Amino acid sequence: MAPGHISIFFNIYEKSIQKGSQKESRKKTNQKMFNSDVELGKFVGSTDLIPDAYRAITETSSSCQLHTTRHGIKVLAFSCFPDYTFRFHNREFDLVSSEDHEMFDFISTKVNPKFSINGAGVELFEQHFAELLELLNQLIDNPLVITGQGIGGYLAILFALRHQHEVDVKESNGSKSAKRPICITFGSPMLGNQHLQGAISERPQWKSSFLNVVAKTDYLASFFSSNSQYKPFGTFLFCTESGGHAAFEDQEAILAALDAMVSSNAGNIQMHDYSKELGSIRKKVLYHGPSEFNESNVTPLRAGIIFQFQEIGVLNDISNDLITEMEKRQVKMIKSKKRYEPTKKLNDMKINLTYMEWYMKTRRLKGGYYDIYKNVSDTDKVENKDVIIKPQRFLDQYWKKTVDESDLMPQKQGAKLRKRWLYNGTNYRRIMEPLNIADYYKSGRKNYIANRPKHYELLEKWSEDEKKERKPSEVRMKAASLTEDSCFWAHVEEALISLTDLKNGDLSSTTTDTDQFDFEVYLLGAINEKSLSPDVFVEGSSLMKWWSKYYTYKGNSCNPELARYMKNGGYKSYQ
């Protein structure tokens, strides 16, 4: 299954109503179940949350109403809005651009800055916006199912998206109390275009919380065909009156199933009653007999895809080409899932970062972490360098991907990375960027900061932004364990290069005495703030080489405060 699967959200809510050994048994079973969309369909079809959500809709007498299930789960149900449904059937609503409606800015991303939503959803969301925000503040810390049918599903989806955004903001500020909702809609037509689909799909936790239940005979659900600009997102559970049901996350499969439904539903504009389908599903889940396939010698994966379309009675309308493409996409998805697993990746990152910290500390007194790495020459040192290549590569790939994903998110509210991630990202930057700088200058290049990798720039920017929001910290009494400016060694290297140019009288160089003066000021400020790690002053380090050459060149005309500090050996007691 894809990362952030809808089954994970159902699992969380199911666990809240399980007790004792039943809870543990269910947990163990689920770990084995979710290996295909066939199994997903069985599981989702068996959960109480879907019939509970539909029951809440039927019992809702106002525009929205809060219910509590017999298991204690809160369900916010939206009405079907008959007047809007009638106007929708008459095609009074077209796609509306988000550019004209600022209240949807929270959905925008860098890749999908603008998108389009059906006008009915826009009007309803704007009309109820103040009421919805008040509800959100009351419910954000509780497990919540948000539901609606038909056009009411539009409002449920948009409220759920806003809810997800507010959870992101709270989590980025360090809060752990906010709970992500599940959104279950019934027969809701597709809401927006491919850019809305893309903006939601960029956030796995958002995408995986949406389930649209679609009956084969529900005309409204298949109102838009694959030839329209509308695109689906989340999971679709298709069902029939006989209890046949299948869950799809593959977008092309969803569109094909919706297209297959159109001809049988033409002209039927009544609001569909889902009670019969839901009751039949529960009965069929209890006894699911053997399935027959008309094809032989098919792979288990292909057989599962065929079974899904057969279950909902649309197999004859599905091309073999679509089934083949679905099979290829699922193979690719299964492989990518093995690489994803965010919790494992986070733990692996911490292990590799801890290893790099150990590597750094064991080399501080042997000539400095930076210079030992940069000046590799003999066999022993080469071997020492080799042992960090693997963790170095893993950490770089991990943080580049993490930063890229975070940078795509909306920029108006909330920190860019959750605080614990930002803390780890700052440590990564301060440990690993000096190694990138060493490789850069060892290859003979200049001006690293102008060519600095983007992910380091963004990690530093977000760290500085977060620091501004904190209360001013007390004056540091001890030296930093990690040099705070991860570009410190780039400044040292540039100072060495410019000093060499000055001494050699290089007419082609743009270097002036001002460059050295600026570095003096920068260095002295870092010393006074104790933002440098003590190992920068190890004898033979690049910094000490610069000082020796610089003092020889400038003599008593260099910065008097810095000269006193260095000449009197103040750096020896820097700690």
Search tags:
575 residues; alpha/beta; 7-stranded mixed beta sheet
Verbal overview:
GO terms for molecular function: carboxylic ester hydrolase activity. It holds the Pfam family Lipase_3. One of its GO terms (cellular component) is cytoplasm. Keywords: Cytoplasm, Hydrolase, Nucleus, Plant defense. It is found in: Cytoplasm; Nucleus. The protein has 575 residues and is an alpha/beta fold. The protein is 55% helix and 8% strand. It is built from 24 helices and eleven strands. It has a seven-stranded mixed beta sheet with strand order 1-2-5-6-8-10-11, with helices on both faces. Strand 5, helix 8 and strand 6 form a beta-alpha-beta unit. Helix 21 runs antiparallel to helix 22. The longest helix is centred in the C-terminal third of the chain and has 24 residues. It is elongated, with a radius of gyration of 30 Å. About 4% of the residues have low confidence.
Lateral arrangement of strands in the main beta sheet: 1-2-5-6-8-10-11
Helix/strand/pairing category: alpha/beta
Dominant shape: elongated
Helicity, as a percent range: 40-55%
Distance between the termini: 51 Å
Rg over alpha carbons? 30 Å
Number of strands: 11
Overall pLDDT score: 83
Largest sheet: 7 strands, mixed
Count of discrete alpha- or pi-helical segments spanning 4 or more residues: 24
State the low-pLDDT regions, or none: 19-35, 289-293
Strand-residue proportion: 5-15%
InterPro entries: AB_hydrolase_fold, EDS1_EP, Fungal_lipase-type, SAG101-like
GO cellular component, one term: nucleus
Main location: cytoplasm
Pfam family, one: EDS1_EP
